[in-house]
Specification:
alpha+beta, binds adenosine-5'-triphosphate, transmembrane, translocase, eleven-stranded mixed β-sheet
């Protein structure tokens, strides 16, 4: 496939994969130092942002029309037509108005919910590291232009089509483009002009993922001019605003509608044949029944509850990528967390250096370059101590991090904190890194990977030849070393001594790095080059303080019946020590990656129950751990940041990726992303997940009795052959509409119940409406219906008009719901407290609004005309209030009895 001609852009055309690097740079008028910001700005204006065409969002009109696609709306439309035939023009008008208003409400709510999610999606926009004005800067991926020099490393998603000009152990997974899921090797040499897409090994294409190594490349095409843009690929379809629970509720709603229509038919003939109602009367009754019983507002309100909850989570730094995770979070039983950065602050500070002839203590905090060196209480000058000096120098050169001063945050690291700690150590020792880097130019590098646990760099030696500097985990470095100390006073390696010393550091919870060097004359560096002959300079111990909020969150998780497990690449002793300090594990046991590898699945199943600390573990181990835990029926949340963590994140019930240090690949595999990389955020998300689930449950618990009571009133009319309907269809429509936009919505804002993190996780198989909740729904329906019917007849007996008695019935119904809202704020706990009554502002506002609506409904002439109402006597309001208060207290009494009864069992 040859790139097509690009008539609308003025970038040079060509089969970039067949051109040598020099030609590419020339064609795009760029050097390896990148574009200037000015050139980038111009090219952006010329070529447009680097975006794929988005799938057109559903048109507003279409979304509006969709609101009418509902069983209830069909019933209402039929009712409108028939009332029109009967000449009941006012009813026709009201019904049509309600249909329209309903659609508008649904439309607006859906829009709000979508907007809430959209803003969350935006928080996850892709960034890329590019060279601009000779410096590496992070820009949003849509700002990338042809000719930009980009830097990518393992875990990154390739943001545009890129001609690779430098590659290191590079593998790219191109499934998005070619369908081939195995990563392919990439390099910098041009290939034949006729090479197929999959064979263009010097190109990295937009949408593919770097699975290992790193690359520098020149962007050759952006946006829809990329290969993926040209095959018409759309941005991944936005997720539907739904979850398994919501789908279940929707299905239930549909089923219920069908059942209700069936019942209505039976009632129709029953009323006609056995109760002597006329066809017109029965028709009105049946329409009333359908309107009354179908909980049409429920799905929309549940959707908005969910969306608001997801938004609240985002405000607390937990960004949901897959909505079903919201429900799953509430039933999580085990959280497996990385240590570094998630449980700890990832602010590494070197505090001890172990040399062959003793320990040197280093003072200072964070990355602040202020600190002193001391040996046995005596100050040490690192410049004078050759061994110490070389160790620090090696640590600074075998390093990709930068420490810089931020006006607000003080000294901070760009890059890996472990490396930042070495840079800060160098600053404390007074090394001039820039000068060192000039004198000892870096020629080649083996980047750090969790698999081999070391990093090595090759430098020019000012004294001739080359030097290898290497740093890494002691178990990885010691086997490579033959000697210790510097040339001249070097001795043979005393492995036992180093193991003992590193254990002492690890006991204190320190991360330990060993540093080694070697002279060589090679021009490149490979794994063979470091396999032997290295000389160990010493080890450094760095602290990484636990996050205090994580310690508290772990304790709260424990109370909430959630076990926290720590999975770390660090040494077992370090891991155990940190774990004990944070409340994970017993401080005794830690399972290492090697031990884990020796176990078969059955042994591992047992081991995951016995251990909470997993050390020296690699991403592959995480997958096995998730599976072992799930085999016990645990609901597992797993964190991860690297590209290799993706399978475990996908497999976990709730995969959690790190927003700051996580790779793009891990974020894509995760259901949730932590904007602050903090463990405490997972706890907040669990809490919020439990709250959302509660609120969904409360919504159902609150809404269904309205429908129940209305349906019972209508059924009673037929069954007992009342002369008159206590409430008319249009009045039922009014009640449903008005309570849905006020009261029911208030529950979406309901805060967490107290003690929400002191109950055990929810059983994922438990139905949302348990037998007990069904009882509550039925009980309240009957209660409210009795009050409404009772007071309707009481009024008639007192000689008031039919219209006035109906107005009374409607007001009783609404008052019952209004007070019942406060019962529903707590499913089992008592609402009889100031907090229970006042703590949800949305509920209070809803009450105020609803009262206003009811006054209008009762007294304003147009409303009286539309809804067939009439003013009621002032004393009637006392009765209405009394009925509402009675409902509240009776339900509270019921809760209290059930609470006591449950306790007694
Ligand atoms: P956690 O799993 O707790 O998040 P981690 O994933 O950061 O920890 P790794 O990065 O795999 O753990 O680090 C494992 C070991 O490798 C460390 O204990 C340290 O000895 C060594 N190490 C870490 N970073 C570097 C680095 N940049 N250069 C050399 N060695 C390193």
């Amino acid at each position: 496939m040859e790139p097509q001609s690009r008539s609308d852009v003025s970038v040079p055309e060509g089969a970039w994969h067949s051109k040598p690097v020099g030609e590419i740079l020339q064609a795009f008028e760029v050097s390896e130092a990148g574009l200037t910001s000015e050139a980038a700005r111009q090219r952006l204006a010329e070529h447009g942002p680097n975006q794929l065409p988005q799938e057109a969002p559903e048109g507003l009109l279409r979304r509006f029309v969709r609101q009418f696609n509902d069983v209830l709306i069909y019933v209402l439309m039929a009712a409108a037509v028939i009332t029109a035939f009967l000449g009941e023009w006012i009813d026709t008008g009201v019904i049509l108005a309600v249909v329209l208003i309903n659609a508008v409400i649904g439309f607006v709510q859906e829009g709000k919910a979508e907007a809430a999610l959209e803003s969350i999606r935006k928080m996850l926009s892709l960034n890329a590291l590019v060279a601009r004005d000779g410096r590496r800067v992070t820009v949003e991926a849509d700002q990338i232009v042809p000719g930009d020099v980009v830097y990518l490393e393992s875990g990154d998603r390739v943001p545009a089509d890129v001609r690779i000009i430098e590659a290191r152990n590079l593998r790219v997974e191109e499934a998005a483009l070619t369908g081939e899921s195995l990563p392919v090797e990439k390099q910098t040499d041009p290939v034949a002009p006729t090479a197929e897409l999959g064979d263009r090994s010097c190109m990295a294409y937009s949408g593919t993922v770097v699975t290992s190594g790193r690359l520098t490349g020149v962007v050759t095409a952006t946006g829809r001019h990329t290969e993926i843009g040209r095959i018409g690929e759309m941005v991944a379809r936005v997720e539907k605003l739904t979850t398994p629970l919501l789908r279940a509720v929707n299905r239930f709603g549909k089923l219920l509608s069908a059942v209700i229509l069936g019942v209505a038919l039976v009632v129709f003939f029953f009323g006609l044949g056995l109760r002597g109602f006329s066809v017109v009367e029965m028709f009105l009754i049946v329409v009333s029944l359908a309107v009354a019983a179908i909980p049409e507002g429920l799905p929309a309100i549940m959707t908005i509850t969910l969306a608001l909850g997801v938004q609240r989570m985002a405000q607390r730094n937990a960004i949901i990528r897959r909505l079903p995770a919201v429900e799953t979070l509430g039933s999580v039983t085990v959280i497996c967390s990385d240590k570094t950065g998630t449980l700890t602050r990832n602010e590494m500070t070197v505090t001890e250096v172990v040399l062959p002839d003793g320990n040197v203590a280093v003072s200072g905090t964070g990355y602040d370059p202020e600190g002193d060196f001391e040996q046995d209480g005596q100050p040490v000058d690192p410049a004078a101590q050759r061994n110490l000096h070389t160790l620090i120098l090696a640590g600074v050169l075998c390093n990709d991090a930068e420490v810089r001063q931020d006006p607000e945050k003080g000294y901070i690291v760009d890059g890996d904190p472990t490396e930042g700690a070495m840079v800060a150590l160098g600053m404390k020792a007074g090394l001039d890194r820039d000068q060192l880097q000039r004198e000892r130019r870096r020629v080649d590098v083996i980047p750090f990977e969790s698999d081999h646990r070391f990093m090595a760099t090759l430098h020019d030696n000012p004294e001739g030849g080359r030097l290898i500097y290497l740093k890494g985990a002691p178990e990885a470095v010691l086997p490579l070393c033959e000697r210790q100390g510097l040339e001249g006073d070097a001795g043979s390696l005393d492995t036992a001594f180093w193991e003992e010393r590193t254990d002492v550091l690890a006991e204190k919870g320190y991360r330990v790095l060993a540093v080694a060097c070697k002279e060589t004359d090679h021009d490149t560096i490979s794994f063979e080059d470091v396999q032997d002959g290295m000389s160990l300079m010493g080890c450094v111990g760095m602290i990484d303080p636990p996050r205090p909020e994580a310690i508290q969150a772990i304790e709260e998780c424990r109370q909430a019946g959630i076990r926290v497990k720590m999975i770390t690449g660090d040494h077992a002793v370090t891991a155990r020590s940190i774990g004990a300090r944070m409340g994970i594990g017993d401080g005794e046991k830690a399972l290492t990656g090697r031990q884990l590898e020796e176990m078969d699945d059955e042994q591992l199943r047992q081991a995951v129950l016995d251990h909470d600390v997993f050390a020296r573990s690699s991403p592959e181990h995480k997958l096995r751990l998730v599976e072992a835990l799930q085999s016990h029926g645990e609901v597992v949340s797993m964190t991860g940041d690297g590209v290799n963590d993706a399978p475990a994140l996908k497999r976990a019930d709730v995969g959690v990726a790190m927003g700051i240090k996580g790779s793009e690949a891990s974020k894509e595999a995760a259901a949730m992303v932590l904007a602050d990389d903090n463990f405490a955020t997972i706890k907040h998300a669990v809490e919020e997940g439990r709250t959302i689930y509660d609120n969904l449950k409360k919504t159902i618990l609150f809404i269904l009795p309205t429908n129940g009571a209305e349906a019972l009133i209508v059924l009673a009319t037929v069954l007992f052959a009342f002369n008159q309907l206590p409430i008319t269809p249009v009045q039922i429509l009014w009640v449903n509409m008005i309570t849905a936009v006020t009261l029911a919505l208030a529950l979406a804002f309901e805060p967490s119940e107290p003690g929400i993190m002191r109950r055990p996780p929810r059983d994922p198989n438990e139905p949302i409406v348990s037998g007990y909740l069904l009882w509550r729904i039925g009980f309240v329906s009957v209660l409210v219906a009795c009050f409404a019917i009772g007071l309707f007849f009481y009024e008639l007996d007192n000689g008031v008009s039919l219209l006035s008695a109906r107005t009374m019935a409607v007001n009783v119904l609404v008052a019952g719901q209004l007070f019942y809202l406060f019962n529903s704020r707590f499913i089992m706990q008592s609402s009889l407290s100031l907090k229970g009554l006042l703590s949800n502002r949305a509920a209070l506002m809803a009450v105020g609004l609803l009262t206003l609506f009811q006054l209008m409904f009762t007294y304003l002439p147009p409303f009286q005309l539309w809804f067939g109402t009439e003013a009621i006597r002032p004393v009637d309001w006392l009765l209405i209030l009394g009925a509402g208060v009675a409902v509240f207290f009776i339900v509270e009494l019921e809760k209290a009895v059930v609470r006591r009864w449950r306790k007694a069992r």
